[in-house]
Design brief:
Blueprint lengths: L2 H18 L35 E2 L7 E6 L3 E5 L4 E8 L6 E9 L3 E10 L13 E8 L8 E4 L4
Parallel strand pairs: 1-7, 6-8
Antiparallel strand pairs: 2-6, 3-4, 4-7, 5-6
Length: 155
């Protein structure tokens, strides 16, 4: 069940409960008095729409606090196989920033490791837990060719 469906179901139940609390049941022999008018305010339910425009382009900052390895989801060769564009899910800035990217090249593989941490200015900031799709592009020393791209955070 989606968040929107659950919220709608919950609100409908609350409205029914509020309407039912407005009048008591009358005994069968007596005529029921007119029920008092009940006013229910409309509640606007926020909707979430996916962002358009693709992942947020970021560059390494080099001064993150407590950097740790972060897994990327896709790696695509670009610029005639001389660069690799990485895409991954991350957190919001300044709570989660790209610290650095480590690239290790051999004749059989290119291992790329992302490191993320908190920016120094995030020390006194409340961080929301929301996913942000990010991307960065790294240069290779030599064209990719037939080498395999490996995520260094998985090892």
């Amino acid at each position: 069940m989606g968040m929107r469906t659950a919220t709608t179901t919950f609100l409908a139940g609350c409205l029914m409960l509020a309407a039912g609390c407005g009048a008591a049941a009358a005994p069968a022999q007596e005529a029921a008095p007119a029920a008092p008018a009940t006013t229910v305010a409309a509640i606007e339910v926020p909707t979430t729409t996916p962002p358009t425009g693709g992942p947020k382009q970021v560059k390494p900052v080099g001064n993150a606090i407590n950097p740790r390895k972060a897994r990327w989801k896709t790696a695509k060769p670009v610029s005639k196989n001389r660069k690799v564009r990485l895409v991954w899910w991350s957190g919001v800035e300044p709570c989660t920033v790209l610290d650095r990217v480590k690239v290790k090249e051999t004749t059989k593989r290119v291992t790329i490791t992302l490191y993320e941490g908190a920016a120094p200015e995030a020390k006194d900031v409340s961080c929301i837990m929301i996913a942000v799709e990010k991307t960065t592009t790294v240069k290779l020393k030599s064209p990719l060719g037939n080498r395999k791209i490996v995520d260094g955070a998985k090892s």
